[in-house]
Amino acid sequence: MKKRGRYPKDFKIETVRLLNSGNKPISELAMELGIKRTLLYRWRDQIEEKGEAAFSGSGRPRNDQLGEVSKLKKELKEVTEERDILKKAAAYFAKDLK
User: What is the reported pTM?
Assistant: First the structure.
């Protein structure tokens, strides 16, 4: 199975510019660049839809980010449990003051 390629934003924009110039058919351009024709259509549609915001890279986070996220989730869970315990204790002691 072939590994999925990753292309920089500048490459995608330049490729779509070449596609829109109309000097070459899309199948010829795709063959020269070594990418699928459908990928060129997808890039063109993304630029038409989002303009400069296309290809923002909202993919999967890196491993170091995933580690930090899991650490923060664990910390949030602990702090939430502590808060709930303190709420119950405050309600218990407030009941005794009445």
Answer: 0.53
